[in-house]
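Colleagues,

Please find the record for the two-part complex below.
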Amino acid sequence: MKTKAVFYHAGCPVCVSAEQSMLGALDPSRFDVEVVHLGTAKNRLAEAETLGVKSVPALVLDNHIFHINFGASLSDLK
Amino acid sequence: MKTKAVFYHAGCPVCVSAEQSMLGALDPSRFDVEVVHLGTAKNRLAEAETLGVKSVPALVLDNHIFHINFGASLSDLK
């Protein structure tokens, strides 16, 4: 069974770079990655905030949050 | 042929978490990951700085630098 991972982003250049390189590097046999654009899916903002996401891009993996470089803070997306 | 990736860290808790979850998630069939402890391998500091690493933990992948959360700044390791 695959582990679910969630990648939160906002379409920013930093986000796109992280998505292309970092997500593309994950083992596809072990992870199902959901990509959530918080700029458009504003209904997911509360969920991201509850998980502890402070900025995007961020990857939630194994209940750990990894903020990858810095594109935008969550508060700027509200 | 595998792509080389380099993970720079300094043994900090944030670094260990990133190493365990994030590096463990990379596709082992496509990446050879070298783990460099900049707290002990101080001879690699200049190399990391030249690549553009500002803080650890950081993963260099496809010539992109991904600073993952924040453990320590490079200048604190000198």
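The mean pLDDT of chain A is 95.

Comments are welcome before we finalize the supplementary table.
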